[in-house]
Structures are given as structure tokens and as C-alpha cells.
Amino acid sequence: MFDAHCHIPSPAQIREIPSDWRGLVCTSRQEEWTSLLMTVETSLGMTGAIGALPSGKGSPPLHMIERMERILDHAPSVQIGEVGLDRRFQDAAPIAAQREFLVDALELGYRRHRSVTLHIVGNERILFDILQAKRGRLPLMIWHGYTGSVETAKRFVATGGILSFGPSLWRPHLKLAARLAELRDMPFVWETDWPEGWLPEPWRQLPYEEMLSAHASRLAAAMDTNEERLEERIDAIGTLLTNQQTPR
Fold first, then answer.
1. DSSP character string of 143-168
2. Which CATH number characterizes residue 206's domain?
3. Mean pLDDT, residues 187-205 taken together
4. What's the total number of domains in the chain?
5. What predicted TM-score, i.e. pTM, was given to this entire model?
């Protein structure tokens, strides 16, 4: 089973992962990259992704793109993510700076033929302005933890993007959960955001494999589709996301 978005697990947590598992392990700070590269090198099924997000300390500096490119040159299986836009930090990280870093990260993904995992909190209009401006030079993109509208989802998919649905879908009163069947034929994957992400209360004490299975089952039921066929479909998309390796 493929998990499209998780974070660096501890050695004890790695032992929870089933032998047939594959996953995209993302980072959000430069300080995590060394640990990520060491972890994925020794753990079967893991594909790493290097990323940096806006925070209360500011937007990632543009020179970080150069370091990312050097890592990609020496690690052909590593992807890019998380990168994106986050309105919560726009006082410390001005939107113009966030936008510039995201544009450069997308260009790097395109040139190095790597998938890019997007973290988008607000600022959807700016995202689509970027995607429109870069039309024809976009990498394979995943919208991590998507919980927006059906209409925005369809617009993103029209740019060539892939939706990623995590347990945050099941937050109380979230409207998208009731309309997931409308997205059944769109390209999407499932994710857990484990071990950092939000989980429904009954899942918080479950072993990782059981939690992922519970999420997959609930997503299949919400979409009124066969879980086994859905898993096969997501595994195939996962292969595309983790095999983006050939420089352009």
C-alpha cells in the first residue's frame, strides 16, 4: 500500500511499517534533510522529498533552491516537498517571498523531472496565477492534505495536478467529505501525514498499518468505490510520483 505523504519516522516507528509498504516521506525544514536522506537510504519502500515551508521565522531563502538542486544531482530518487504558500505566516514571510520561492521550486521540479508536493493554506488565487503563468513548464504536482472545494479540486486537476487526501478529511463539519464521490474519477492518492498529522480520536492509538487501512477503507466508502481496485490505482500513481528521476 502506498502512502503519498508522511514524515520522518523514528526507528521504533519504522518497525511498524509493513514489508509491502511504499511511501513518500516529506520534509518542511532544511534541518530535516540530512536525517531524511539517511533514513530513506536504509529503509525499503521509502522515497524522500526535500522541502521548506514558510514559518514564523520567514520564507525559505532563494539560495536554498541551489542546495536542493545539488542534493537532487546526487540523489536521483529524491523528490521535492513540502513547498507552498501559507497565509498564517504572511507577516513574517511576505506572500511575495513565498510566491518567489514556490515558483523556483516548481521550476526546479520541472527541470529535474521530480514530483513536487504542495502545502497550500489559503492563497489559492495566487497558486493558480502561478500555475497559469508556468503552463507548459510544470512538474508532476501533489496537493497535500486537500480539504478545499470540489470546484477548486477540479481546477487543480485540470493543470495536471494530483489530489492527496489525508485523515484531515474527517474533521467534524468539513464539507468536502460528503462530496468525495464527485472526485472519484479524478487523479488522487491517499496519505496519512504520519506521525505528525491530525487523526480522528479512534485512530490515535492504532498502529500505523491499521490507521492507514482505516483511512483507506473510509475513503473508499465515501467515494462509493471498491477499496481493492482503488488501492491498485493509487499504487500505480505512487509509482509515477516516486520515479520522477530523469533530468530534462
1. ETT--S-HHHHHHHHHTT-EEEE-GG
2. 3.20.20.140
3. 95
4. 1
5. 0.95
